[in-house]
């Protein structure tokens, strides 16, 4: 009689196989934290930006811009480890996780799109580049990504861990350009963003992904109404939580606090930091948008 009645799951997505090949144990150097942001002004900015440009800007676009600004403000956090030494990146890249549901119910997969030099670009350009990359990913028109996904879909599970670590070693530790072999150049960037708000979640802690060498992950929660205190009085505010995971081997609380200050300044005072747009007429706050 077995201890548990089990049935092996055979039909694994490529992401699930990669996940199983990534983490060998439960321990890692992760530090977790949550910050709450007041979102009234950010929602007003989204409304004004959409009215002014006709583009469907989202909170994810805004967060990508201010997260890149935070890395520019705190360059020591824009780094990777090689041979147990810290190497600072010369460019800032922001990786967005993208959900893919084209294979039917119960077969959701995860992929991603990376934008570079986000801190230097206006929000209109960020919006357009992001949409083009997401469309290519979801319609499977990204050749390099499809080649990689196809490889891991058919790779035996016991080899996935070794292949991922071999590619990571060659790409990051030895710093070799493997594009000739179908491996994209720096596919994960400096920081990862995943929008859990689209799933109706407020808080989640995303695990570090060792082979990506990305030391900072941000999970963006849904915007909710909740009680807040303003000038000693209780009122209802629009609040969003950002859950952060970072690699404590070379990022500590000082770095996290410096980056958090930039995120708060930009998201809570968007008309002062993001692209200039005409102020909207005074009216009720728009409903929390899809993110």
Main sheet? 7 strands, mixed
The structural class is alpha+beta
Q: Could you say which overall geometry the principal axes of the C-alpha atoms support?
A: globular
Number of strands: 9
Compute the CA-based radius of gyration: 20 Å
Query: What is the residue-averaged pLDDT?
Result: 85
| Spans of at least 5 consecutive residues with low confidence | none
Please report the distance between the alpha carbons of the first and last residues.
49 Å
Number of helices, where a helix is a run of at least 4 consecutive DSSP H or I residues: 8
Strand content: 15-25%
SSE string, helix = H, strand = E?
HEHHEEEEHHHEEEEHH
Share in helix: 25-40%
Summary keywords:
two-stranded antiparallel ribbon; globular; seven-stranded mixed sheet; 291 residues; 8 helices; alpha+beta; single chain; 9 strands
Characterization of the model:
It is a single chain. This protein has about 290 residues and is of the alpha+beta class. The chain contains eight helices and nine strands. Strands 1, 4, 5, 6, 7, 8 and 9 form a seven-stranded mixed sheet that branches. The chain has a two-stranded antiparallel ribbon with strand order 2-3. Helix 1 (about 15-20) packs across helix 5 (about 145-155), helix 1 crosses helix 6 (about 155-175) and helix 3 (about 60-75) crosses helix 7 (about 255-270). The protein is globular and about 60 Å long. The mean pLDDT is about 85.
